[in-house]
Amino acid sequence: MKMRDIGKNGPIVSAIGLGCMGMSHAYGNYDDTPSFNTLEEAVEQGINFFDTAEVYGPYINEELVGRALRPVRNQVIIATKFGFNITK
């Protein structure tokens, strides 16, 4: 996997990141098992950059990604987005 520096002193991330929205949002029912398998395989393939958001679920996606990547948390970068008005 090709890697990229983010900024002068920033982290080194994989050139390909994994967007995780579809693991809990937008495509109907979801199941943790295939999502965990996908995240595990992504790490094995050298991906270390994962994208999530509080609005995916809401909150479910961040929790799922956090649980799945807990064993390798010190090896990955998790980006999230917040500030959505999800009470409406």
From TrEMBL:
InterPro entries cross-referenced by the UniProt entry: Aldo-Keto_reductase, NAD(P)_OxRdtase_dom_sf, NADP_OxRdtase_dom
Domain NADP-dependent oxidoreductase as annotated: residue spans: 15-82
Source species, domain of life: Bacteria
Pfam families: Aldo_ket_red
GO molecular function, one term: oxidoreductase activity
Any one GO CC term of the record: cytoplasm
Keywords: Oxidoreductase
Protein name, as recorded: Aldo/keto reductase
Organism listed in the record: Affinibrenneria salicis
